[in-house]
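Box 3.1. Reading complex inputs
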Amino acid sequence: MKKLIRLTYTKWFTIIKNGLVNSNPVLSATLGICSALAVSNRVDNAIAMGLGVMFVTLASSVTISLIRNLIPSRVRMVTYMVVISTFVIAFQQFLEAFYPSINEALGPYVGLIITNCIVMGRAEAFAIKNSVAYSALDAISNGLGYTYILVIIAIIREVLASGTILGFNVVGQGWTNWIVMSMAPGGFFVLAILLWIMKSFTNVGRT
Amino acid sequence: MAHLLEIFIASITSHNIALTYILGMCPLIAISKKVKTAFGMGISVVFVVTLTVFINWPIYNKILLTTDSDNIALLVFIIIIAATVQFLEMFLEKFAPSLYNAFGIYLPLITVNCVVLSVSLFMVTRQYTYSETVVFGFGSALGWTLAIVTVAAIREKLALTADIPKGLQGVGIVLIITGLLALGFTGFGGMANIQ
C-alpha cells in the first residue's frame, strides 16, 4: 500500500495522469478540437487521426527534446514548425501508401495536424525543457488522452448517425438514422455535452 | 465571372469554413468574448489568408509541380505562411503604426490558425485556378469572420442575461452556440456549389 502511494508521487506517474486525466488536452484546454470534431463522424477515421497525432507528437517531442540545447529561443517556433511538418508529411505518405481509403476520408485534415495545438503545445510547454524520456512519456500520454476522447465522440456519433460501430450494425432493425450527427452541428453538440458531463461528475479536465 | 461569384457565395454560406468544415476553432473559442476583438481577429485573418494563397498558388503550381516535389508542399506552405505573417508584422510596425496597434496583437496567433493552412490545402485538393483560389481564400476568410463575429455577439448578450449551468460555462456554451449556428447554416446547403 505504501509503495502504491509512493508511486503516485513519482514524476512519470504525474506525467501520465496529467495527460490522460487532469489536464487532458481536449477537455481541459479544448486544444486540437478542429480535427477532433471534423474527423469524429466515423470510428475508423477517429482512430487513424488519433494515432497520427500521437505519432507526430511523440516524434516531434523527442526530436525537439534531443536538440533543445541547440535551438536559439528566438527562432524556436519556426524550428517546431519545420520539425512537426516533416513528421506530418511522413505520416501522410504512410497513409497514402498503406491506407488510401482512410487518407481519402481524412482529406486535408491530415495536413492540418501541423496546426493542431496539441503538438506545438507539448513542444513548447514540455519538450523544450525536459529530458528525452520524460518528453516521450508526456507526448504518449497526451496523444492517448486525445485519442480516447476522439474515439468516445466518434462512437456516439457513428451509432446515432448510421447505427454502426466500425461498420458493424449495433442497433438492429427499425433504427432511424440521425443524419445531423454525422454533420458539423452533431460534433459540436456531442463535445459540449461530453464536456458538461465530465466537468460536472468527474475530475477530468480539472487542473 | 458567374462561376467565381458562385465560389465566393458558397465559401461564405453553404461551405462556410468554420461552420461546415469545423476549422479555426481554437481562436473562435478563445477570442470570441467581445465583438470588437473578434472583428479585429477576423479582419487580420482575411488579410493573411488572401495574401498567403496569392503567394502559395504560383509556388505550388509553377515550382513544386513542375519539379515533381509536391510531396513537400505542406512544409513549403507552412514556412511561407510563417514568413508572410512575420513580414506583415514588421511592415505594419514600420509603415502603418496605427494599423499595427489595432491588429498587431492578433498576427502572431494567425500562424497556427488552421484556416490559413487549410485554404492552401483545399486549393490543392480541388485544383483551383489562380483567380478561383484568390476568390475562395477571400470568401472563406470572410465566412470565418462572419462566424466569429456572430458567436461573439451572441456571447456578449448571453453574458448579461443567461443563467448557464456550471459545467457548461466557458467552452461548453460556446460549442452549443456554434453548433446551433452550424445547424442554421445547413439551411444554405445546395444554394451554391464550391467546385
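In summary: Chain A has a mean pLDDT of 85.
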